[in-house]
Design goal:
Elements lengths: L1 H7 L2 E2 L1 H10 L2 H13 L1 H4 L3 E10 L2 E7 L5 E7 L8 E7 L2 E3 L5
Parallel strand pairs: 1-6
Antiparallel strand pairs: 2-3, 2-5, 3-4, 5-6
Protein name: DUF6876 domain-containing protein
Pfam families: DUF6876
InterPro entries: DUF6876
């Protein structure tokens, strides 16, 4: 029950919503917010840097650090139609945002 409650207390900004709509990547916001709410390694970190990086063809890597290059999470995304080669997002005080919004 507490985990479900925690999930609803996470948020993203208006600019994040615009980015998700423009790049058709709501799945990325969902993935990050779900991991931030449920992953024990991430729950204790107030600030996180999330990077989506193109590896090859349609394969990407999603990586999270604490902002000081300490790895907290990493996963290969086997298929995505994401159009950019990379994207960096910040998660601070339970809000997902673009670095320019901080």
């Amino acid at each position: 029950m507490n985990r479900i409650t925690a999930t609803y207390s996470l948020a993203s900004t208006i600019r994040m919503q615009y980015m998700a709509q423009t790049y058709n990547c709501y799945w990325l916001i969902d993935k990050i917010l779900i991991e931030a709410a449920l992953n024990k390694n991430l729950l204790k970190e107030d600030f996180q840097v999330w990077k989506l990086t193109w590896l090859r063809e349609d394969v990407f890597e999603l990586h999270c650090s604490d902002g000081n290059d300490r790895e907290l999470f990493k996963e290969v995304i086997p298929y995505s139609d994401f159009v950019a080669s990379h994207l960096t997002l910040w998660f601070s005080d339970r809000v997902l945002l673009l670095p320019s919004e901080y």
